[in-house]
Design brief:
By secondary structure, the protein is mainly alpha-helical. The protein folds into two domains: about 50 residues; about 100 residues, Cytochrome Bc1 Complex, Chain D, domain 2, CATH 1.10.760. About 40% of the residues lie in helices and about 5% in strands. A two-stranded antiparallel ribbon has the order 1-2. A hairpin with a 2-residue loop joins strand 1 and strand 2. The longest helix has 23 residues. It starts with 10 loop residues before the first strand and ends with a strand. The chain binds heme C. The site of heme C has 25 residues, from helix 4, helix 5 and helix 6.
Length: about 200
């Protein structure tokens, strides 16, 4: 076996099947990388375990809070809280409500029937209500929808301005006691008596 001069003092004192080993140093770049990982590990441990750095749940909560701030998610939509939901008997408002109800954008009629008699969704013309029958309760039903039952939230996904929601509320109010043909059966287990004044 040929051994170069400068390898002689690096040669380790063992041999296996003719294979010998030189005691080469690790390359400098490798060593620095190694020292860096040690320093990083110490810093990591100090920050997260000793100095109380945030864990992933806290980081998640912080990011969500930041986003809530940035996108103003905590603040109610403009005008929403102060809107005075009320059944209007102004024929123009009621006509607007009917227009929205029958409109192709919102499709209320496809689930509640052309006359509000109910189909997939409940009858809106009787005095049995699942989610309340005050102007505010009906507005809330419309705005938040019932996504698990198929009714989308009209307050966000397909936004309706508050004026249109109130027009719908007024239109639904005007349907009370109209007794349309083919009314959908009342969901006796859930609907309760509620009369729109
Ligand atoms: C895809 C079908 C569908 C569409 C479209 C739909 N709804 Fe509904 N709606 C439902 C269902 C189903 C319920 C019953 C939810 C439940 O069981 O609690 C409901 C419930 C309601 C209620 C509450 C009824 C009660 O008894 O408390 C109101 C008010 C209402 N919808 C109004 C509307 C209006 C106004 C629109 C259009 C802007 C609309 N819905 C569009 C399916 C629909």
């Amino acid at each position: 076996m040929k051994i170069l001069d400068d390898e002689k003092d690096k040669l380790l004192n063992h041999e296996y099947d003719g294979i010998r080993e030189l005691d080469n140093h690790m390359p400098l770049w490798w060593l620095w990388l190694f020292y860096f990982t040690i320093a990083f590990g110490v810093g990591y441990m100090a920050y997260y375990y000793l100095l109380g750095g945030p864990d992933q749940h806290e980081e998640y909560a912080m990011e969500m809070a930041e986003a809530a701030e940035k996108f103003k998610m905590d603040e109610p939509e403009e005008g929403a809280p102060s809107f005075a939901w009320a059944f209007s008997d102004d024929p123009d408002v009621i006509a607007r409500g009917q227009e929205v109800f029958m409109g192709m954008n919102n499709l209320c009629f496809t689930c509640h029937g052309n006359a509000g008699e109910g189909l997939v969704g409940p009858n809106l013309t009787d005095d049995k209500w699942i989610s309340g029958c005050s102007a505010e309760a009906i507005a809330t039903s419309i705005i938040t929808g019932f996504p698990d039952k198929g009714m989308v939230p009209y307050g966000s996904g397909a936004p309706l301005p508050n004026e249109d929601v109130n027009a719908l509320v007024s239109y639904i109010g005007s349907l009370q006691g109209t007794n349309p043909a083919n009314p959908k059966a009342v969901d006796e287990a859930r609907a309760v008596d509620c009369t729109i004044e």
